[in-house]
Amino acid sequence: MPFAQPVLLLAVVSAISVLSAQPRALVENIDVAPALEVPSPENVDGPIIQLALLLDTSNSMDGLINQARTRLWSIVNEMSAIAVAGEVPQLQVALYQYGNSGISAAEDHVQLRCRFTTDLDIVSEQLFALSTNGGNEYCGAVLREALTELSWVGTGRKHVLRLVVIAGNEPFNQGTEPFGEWTSHAMKRDIRINTIFCGPEQEGRRTLWEQGALSGNGYYAFINQDYQEPEIETPFDDALKQLNDALNGTYIGYGRRGAESLKRQEMQDQFNASASVSGFFSRVLSKSSSNYATGSWDLVSGVEDGSIALEDIDSKSLPEEYRGLSPVELEQRIDLLVIERTRIQNEIVEVSKKRREFIKQALTNQNASESERLDDALIRALLKQAVEAGF
Q1: How does DSSP classify residue 290?
Q2: Which pLDDT score is estimated for 374?
Q3: Which part of the chain is CATH 3.40.50.410?
Q4: Are 138 and 35 in contact (CB under 8 A)?
Q5: Which terminus of the chain is more solvent-facing, meaning fewer CB atoms within 10 Å of its CB: N or C?
Q6: Residue 366 pLDDT
Q7: Which residues of 274-292 are buried (b: 16+ CB within 10 A; e: fewer)?
Q8: Cross-strand partners of 77
Q9: How far apart are alpha carbons 253 and 45 in whole angstroms?
Q10: CA 349, CA 354: separation in Å to the nearest integer?
Q11: Helix axes 179-188, 139-149, angle to 10 degrees
């Protein structure tokens, strides 16, 4: 059955503007290899959400890819509002592409782009690396790979939400791999299969996308993948850009991944800003949440959460400007950066709230209509299933 009405949605995140601003062109993909050696998520005792995104990258799916790129951060923001006994779940995201002729037929045109990771900049980078190219869309095959290749948390663990979201526009039973075998496999492991058909509702039902969701204890939705959202400028945009720049200045990259990750953070800011104004500001807000995890490469985050001990840090692994500091001086510098980052993040939250209210009022004044997007469908599924799982 189609989704019920949302229980909770950020008003602006889920709204589609009909104001006069012109939609932006699709951002060209970048040449980046799949991230197959991402840092493993930190072991936590608290709640976990595992989200595997399976995206059709055959011809005609450019709009779907662009929505996934630009709406990732609004989904992250909604996940930051979910809690168990006041504790925000750790969010792990994995990414597959399927249906692309550039991927070998021997691999069923399926490719793992990113294993489960909490480093959302890596996920964003991989989304911007996707491109479309012909292909045969084998939903059963990509389900098989995601269910057998990823490191899913075992069913004995409490407060874990295991989700697959698969989006595409060809019949769900294409290919020789029976999807029912894998949706049944998923149910036994408490992994929910949610399907998003890129096209009309009834067409998705006729081509078994609804059946795929029902057989996988998930939800079925349909979207117009080619819709591009016009943007609304607000008086708060410049302030948020400046706050984002200031926030970036509070990170200290260390170790093998430090400099690379700092550059990735900067590049993803640029790519998201080029792709979508609203998507960029959703990203800025996400960088103020616990789901924007940087402890694997940022010394400030690592020391703050206790995963890094300063006495264990090799000074050679630090940026040049920090290598001459004594342990006491380095600790003092980090303490100041923690205070500064917290101040900036709190200000981002407040200014973002004002920006949302401004847009909400603008939409109301223009009698703007709503249209289903990828993040609407994902958020609706996530929220319903989080409640069902005891979140």
Answers
A1: T
A2: 67
A3: 48-229+370-388
A4: no
A5: N
A6: 65
A7: ebbbbbbbbbbbbbbbebb
A8: none
A9: 27
A10: 9
A11: 30
User: Do the beta carbons of residue 204 and residue 210 sit within 8 Å?
Assistant: yes
Q: If you count DSSP H runs as helices and E runs as strands, how many of each does the chain have, helices first? A: 13, 6
pLDDT digits (tens, 9 = 90+) for 109-151: 999 999 999 999 999 999 999 999 988 999 999 999 999 999 9
- Per-residue pLDDT of 221-233, as tens digits, reads 888 888 776 688 9
Q: Are 269 and 280 in contact (CB under 8 A)?
A: yes
Chain-centroid distance, C-alpha 25: 21
Topology of the domain covering 48-229+370-388: Rossmann fold (3.40.50)
User: 6-39: per-residue pLDDT in tens?
Assistant: 222 222 223 222 222 333 444 556 789 999 999 8
* Full 3-state SS string of 246-272: HHHCCCCECHHHHHHHHHHHHHHHHHH
CA distance 98 to 138: 7
At 170-224, the pLDDT tens digits run: 999 999 999 999 999 999 999 999 999 999 999 999 999 999 999 999 999 888 8
Q: How far is CA 200 from CA 59, 74, 206, 279, 360, in A?
A: 18, 24, 10, 25, 28
Can you read off the two tokens belonging to residue 57? 């990258």
Residue 371 has pLDDT above 90, yes or no: no
Q: What is the mean pLDDT of residues 159-166?
A: 94
Separation of alpha carbons 110 and 101, rounded Å: 10
From the list 267, 302, 221, 286, the residue with the least C-alpha distance to 42 is 302
Please list the alpha-helical segments (H only) found in the chain: 62-79, 120-129, 139-149, 179-188, 201-206, 209-215, 237-248, 255-275, 277-286, 299-304, 320-323, 327-365, 374-388
Report yes or no: 176 and 188 within 8 Å, Cβ to Cβ. no
Inter-CA distances, 68 with 47, 75, 123, Å:
25, 10, 10
Residue pair 77/383 in contact (Cβ under 8 Å)? The answer is no
| Count of C-beta atoms within a 10 Å radius of residue 163 | 21
